[in-house]
Amino acid sequence: MGTENKACVLMQRYELGKLLGQGTFAKVYHGRNLKTSQSVAIKVIDKEKVLKVGLIDQIKREISVMRLVRHPYVVQLYEVMASKTKIYFVMEYVKGGELFSKVSKGKLREEVARKYFQQLISAVDFCHSRGVYHRDLKPENLLLDDDGNLKVSDFGLSALAESKRQDGLLHTTCGTPAYVAPEVINRKGYDGAKADIWSCGVILFVLLAGYLPFHDPNLMEMYKKIGKAEFKCPNWFPGEVRKLLSRILDPNPNTRITIARIMENPWFRKGFDDKLMHNGMQTEEVVPVDVDSVFCSSENGKSEVKQEMMKPANMNAFDIISLSAGFDLSGLFGQTDNKREARFTSTQPASSIISKLEDIARRLKLKVKKKDGGVLKIEGSKEGRKGVLAIDAEIFEVTPAFHLVEIKKTNGDTLEYQKLWKQDIRPALKDIVWAWQGDQQQPQEEERCLPLQ
Fold first, then answer.
1. What are phi and psi of 80, to 5 degrees?
2. Residues taking part in catalysis
3. Residue 164 — pLDDT band, cuts 50, 70, 90?
4. What b/e readout covers 113-147, taking b as 16+ CB neighbours within 10 angstroms?
5. Predicted pLDDT of residue 282
6. Which domains does the chain have, with CATH numbers?
């Protein structure tokens, strides 16, 4: 935290409390406003790290989006501050935890699931009215407050209306695989509002069933099911819900039900208070902050660290068919002990994979050279039996939540490489690996085909 945290006080305005959670680039603390004693959540982002791996635009977008959206069922951003090394998001403190925690214990009662769905639709409808499309709606991004009300969070993958191309569609493949709409997977351009509606339908199914509508141990098979909307409602689903879900989970976005129509649905309207939709809404920007300034030094206004381009090669799920016979991912996982390359899949973001590879290289005293196109080139520091050992690590993006990583030797002695690989590199990667090539045992996910992050 640097000098700002010597007395556990940030910018002479907030008292910092316990650590609530942390990721690769940020930590979230409980905080208290010194003037009002209000509890807040303070997200502390390491500025140098996000600049280094090219996440500037994502952070700027998250700030811009949260400035536009003020709604009783959306986590509120109070203010954004910055020091020379850190960015601080001061946000509403929501201490009820993730909705995912409730669902992981089993299906919810119909009236409880309906209440959360009503609140979700109200929040999403408001976001869309402000030109904001979330694009990563899932139970893990839905928090609960003291009163058990839902709060939509994590706008890091959201898009603004101006992100659309001339065809009026969005073209960035993102979201969590099990919740993503068919048109997003197909990468032919999609309407952000319709894609969010699909995700809301998956969430409704999960709330009522306790498991995902589209799940298969084979990723490609799961995508085929999503593309055709192949799902089966449990026998305890009311007939009204079955009909509503069939209209929400319509694989054709042009005929998929709209939010306006969902709000007219008899099942949806039971116990629904229209006043809740308008309570606390504001149309003005609520956080007057210069988005660009948070990435500038307070001394000279210039960016402190040049952005180094290191983005994964974008890889549509269907593009990897060429690497896998018959839609079976096991074709990617042949025995490779005596080969010069290995592949693994990961549900970590590309930035976390890159950071992990860099940490391993530093620990092994290897040099890291960044290259465009999602390739890291790693070299030994001294000559081996057959020259300097060189290793390429290439990251392919299936979706932002699922990556394929290929590591191969490009120079040096094969035996030296295999020894280094087996004894040092592979064991060190275990924290970010979802499945290795050649490994028969697949992760256990209790009816979920991918970790739901």
1. -120, 130
2. 136
3. very low
4. bbbbbbbbbbbbbbbbebbbbbbbbbbbbbbbbee
5. 46
6. 2-93 (3.30.200.20), 99-278 (1.10.510.10), 313-436 (3.30.310.80)
Dihedral sign, Cα of residue 202, residue 203, residue 205, residue 211: positive
Cα–Cα distance measured from residue 451 to residue 434, given in angstroms and rounded to the nearest whole number:
9
Distance between CA atoms of residues 91 and 78, nearest Å: 5
How far apart, in whole angstroms, are the C-alpha atoms of residue 3 and residue 39? 22
Query: Are 50 and 63 spatial neighbours (Cβ–Cβ below 8 Å)?
Result: no
**Type of residue numbered 178:** A
Tell me whether residue 49 is annotated as binding: no
Q: Which amino acid is at 385?
A: R
- Distance, in Å, from the CA atom of 222 to the CA atom of 216, rounded to the nearest integer, reads 5
Q: For position 437, what pLDDT does the model report?
A: 62
The set of residues, in sequence order, having a beta carbon less than 8 Å from that of 353 and lying 6+ positions away, is: 346, 395, 403, 405, 432
Rounded average pLDDT over 388-394: 88
Across the range 172-197, mean pLDDT stands at: 76
Q: What is the pLDDT of residues 335-378, one digit of tens each?
A: 444 456 788 888 788 888 888 898 899 888 898 877 655 678 88
Contacts of residue 194, defined as CB under 8 A and 6 or more positions apart, other chains included, come to 181, 183, 253, 256
